[in-house]
């Protein structure tokens, strides 16, 4: 395909980033705040605050911070989110196409839906960017030639800078792939069984040695289709439609290639291992040495499962009506998104109107909707709401700034829940 087509598709893929006055991605406000705060610290106007260094969960913030200095908050977030979306979409598409042995254009609508799914709307952009880089690394290293593996290493380094979770997942898949290529297809099931047993043992050890949370409801995320359930129950229509199309493509694959080949293939084992990790491992862990929990592990990693399912189905020969069905599901999904994001923007526009009428010396009103003020206004909403800063998350209060126990370390370990709650 010509480069002009890739450019046109990229522009089309970025429409949801620009179709509303504000990007609806919960934790994006925390990223904007973390990009603004270091600039304030560098001016020397924040006594008691220092910037500490770290090695992961920072790549998106570094990119956003640099663009913030050049273009301001509004343009910086649009550009940064656009870059993250393109890295993820084309990385996932490249991985799917390499595994399937041909360009998987019929699955691009599915990739687009997953790209704008739950993880995107939670605003976990360091994780999101890391996942995209990991798919690029998997596509480069798929043939397992030494030179190509060497090219994948820098991508994995960048992925680790963005977020460690996809990095660990990708290294595990690459190790499995290296082992699977050395044994017969029939023997791969034993390697997979060993992987699953290792996960069970890890679950037991983690459960007994540190704070963690596991729920049987995690099995609902084992297909990756849960990513398209973004806001309310109407997205079940999209989820059901996606599962139906996936099932039809899987039946095509079984018919064309045979059940034995499908089950013993590396892409199928990738799906099994990734789905098992989502279900077996805890979804919340308090890592040793950290004061915040790593949360939503299963919910995040189901994004990787969804792309692995697409990679498995890339080898199937789609029927004409299946192509149209996938496109129709995508149209319904993005139609729902536009409607819901427009409603949220309307609410935030009203909040902006309320904030603009508040005197700089007047405290913020105590109201259930006040927790959205940071999301609606970003850093510009801070002046009337002095902050208590702990590890990069802002607690908006009506009292004076709280700086206790000496200098406070400001870092980016904040990805967890929308509106800047303190979680990894």
Characterization of the model:
- This protein is mostly helical and 424 residues long.
- The protein has a domain at 72-343.
- Helix content is 61%, strand content 5%.
- Helix 5 (73-100) runs antiparallel to helix 6, helix 6 (108-115) packs parallel to helix 16 (320-356) and helix 11 (188-209) runs parallel beside helix 14 (266-280).
- The chain is globular, with a radius of gyration of 22 Å.
- The two termini are 40 Å apart.
- The model is unreliable at 366-423 (pLDDT under 50).
What's a quick, concise take on this entry?
By secondary structure, this protein is mainly alpha-helical. It has helices at residues 3-13, 15-18, 28-42, 59-71, 73-100, 108-115, 118-122, 125-141, 146-162, 164-180, 188-209, 235-257, 259-264, 266-280, 297-313, 320-356, 373-377, and strands at 49-51, 212-213, 284-286, 293-294, 387-390, 393-396, 408-410. It starts with a helix and ends in a 14-residue tail after the last strand.
SSE diagram, text form:
Layout: H1 3-13, H2 15-18, H3 28-42, E1 49-51, H4 59-71, H5 73-100, H6 108-115, H7 118-122, H8 125-141, H9 146-162, H10 164-180, H11 188-209, E2 212-213, H12 235-257, H13 259-264, H14 266-280, E3 284-286, E4 293-294, H15 297-313, H16 320-356, H17 373-377, E5 387-390, E6 393-396, E7 408-410
Parallel strand pairs: 1-7
Antiparallel strand pairs: 2-3, 3-4, 5-6
Helix pairs in contact: 3-4, 4-5, 5-6, 5-8, 5-15, 6-15, 6-16, 8-9, 8-10, 9-10, 10-14, 11-14, 12-15, 12-16, 14-15
